[in-house]
Design a protein that fits this description.
Transposase_HTH; five-stranded mixed sheet; elongated; Nucleotidyltransferase, domain 5; 12 strands; alpha/beta; Transpos_ISL3; binds zinc ion; 3 domains; single chain; Transposase_DDE; Transposase, IS204/IS1001/IS1096/IS1165 family protein; 11 helices
Length: 310
């Protein structure tokens, strides 16, 4: 279909393909339009007089797995009657950009990573993320699996806006992407499924509206907290204790604590005897830190047991 589209527009009477340049990282299709009479948008007179050209680069759906750019030599006409300068009219241009958007959304649903999509299309990751905004809440799958995961992710690394992704973890496929993580929209979304009772497990991260939604709409399901998410909280907690203790220490000890940060986050089993002794020194200064560390180790043990018995 993609190939057809390209040949169709290249076959179009008005388009002239001036050349194809392929290098290691992209394909460029150089095109221009046939010169033809245009109607002046200001006075309505007809003109074929060319004023100048401007090169426009339009990202298109990748060809042969490579980012593809249409390099259009866009013509500017000038009206002989009133002097108005204007660009030639090309009616398929807007379609090409939306074609690329649709392609990217399809790739997202196939669980391609943003980075891969960005590489193959030559579109920035931020733009890929922005496209998520255009997704509606109409699901294109009709039945729910027994296990679903709901995760949040940030629109971009520095941003505050969250999207929500619904995954079938058993089949490892993305069911849908919602444009925000608000409970109202989550409810609207899940309400329409008739087979919600079939769902046995919902894996979520620790975002309150997720668990509220599950409790309301998946009455027969158990909630599991994603381990990765949980671990992150535990590490933050340890870090907070360390920072608090550190502040109260004299300068020479403070540096020592800072250096030992990695020791606190590492698993006890993986430490050398020397490193274990360093930990003991820190614990000697603070019981809170010792307790925090023991709790972390305990959590790792529990999650290991769960993993091993699964
Ligand atoms: Zn004119």
């Amino acid at each position: 279909m993609q190939g057809n589209y390209i040949t169709n527009f290249l076959k179009s009477e008005d388009t002239i393909l001036e050349g194809v340049i392929e290098n290691d990282n992209r394909i460029e299709l150089h095109i221009k339009m046939k010169q033809k009479p245009h109607i002046c948008p200001r006075c309505g007179e007809i003109t074929s007089k060319i004023h100048d050209y401007r090169v426009q680069r339009i990202k298109d759906v990748p060809l042969f797995g490579k980012p593809t750019v249409i390099v259009l030599k866009k013509r500017r006409y000038v009206c002989k009657h009133c002097g108005k300068k204007f660009y030639e009219h090309i009616d398929y241009l807007p379609r090409m950009t939306s074609r690329l958007s649709i392609y990217i959304l399809q790739q997202l649903k196939k669980q391609q990573s943003m980075k891969d999509i960005s590489e193959v299309t030559g579109v920035s990751i931020t733009t890929v993320m922005r496209l998520l905004d255009t997704i509606g809440v109409e699901p294109d799958y009709k039945t729910l699996p027994e296990i679903i995961s709901i995760y949040e992710f940030k629109e971009n690394s520095g941003g505050r806006k969250y999207h929500c992704i619904i995954v079938d973890p058993k089949e490892r496929k993305i069911l849908d992407i919602l444009k925000d993580r608000k409970q109202k929209n989550l409810s609207e979304y899940f309400k329409r499924f008739k087979d919600r009772n079939k769902v046995k497990w919902v894996i979520i991260d620790m975002w309150r509206p997720f668990s509220d939604t599950v409790k309301t709409y998946f009455k027969g399901a158990k909630i599991a907290i994603d381990k990765f998410h949980f671990t992150r909280y535990i590490y933050w907690a340890i870090e907070n204790v360390r920072k608090r203790i550190q502040k109260e220490l004299p300068d020479n000890k403070r540096k020592y604590f800072k250096r030992s940060r990695k020791l606190l986050l590492a698993k006890y089993d993986t430490l050398t005897t020397e490193q274990k002794e360093e930990l003991e020194v820190m614990f000697w200064y603070s019981d809170d830190l010792r307790i925090a560390y023991l709790l972390k180790e305990e959590f790792n043990e529990v999650s290991c047991i769960i993993k091993c018995n699964r």
